[in-house]
Amino acid sequence: MISRAFNGQHGRAYLFDGVVNVVEGEPNDRQMTTGNHTVRDIYCVKCGQTLGWKYDYAYEPSQKYKEGKYILERNLLVDVQ
């Protein structure tokens, strides 16, 4: 995990270099609080639930560090035992 200091549409979110057991949706542009980004939603490979998104491109130079990284929204994750 890179950072816990993110917010998603459903509350707290975490930034990761990589994630597993997800499939990626189609890219689309979104206006976010930190500027315009090209992102793709990521879904659980087993149940299809939306878990967050992947940053493909950041239009703002200060946000380039997010490119290729993933956001997982805490409230969309389920603890599995």
TrEMBL record:
PROSITE patterns: YIPPEE (PS51792)
Assigned keywords, A-Z: Metal-binding, Zinc
Domain of life: Eukaryota
MF term (GO), any: metal ion binding
Residue span, Yippee domain: 1-81
Entries under InterPro entries matching the protein: Yippee, Yippee/Mis18/Cereblon, Yippee_fam
Classification via Pfam families: Yippee-Mis18
Family membership noted in the UniProt record: Belongs to the yippee family.
Name this polypeptide is given: Protein yippee-like
Organism: Pycnoporus cinnabarinus
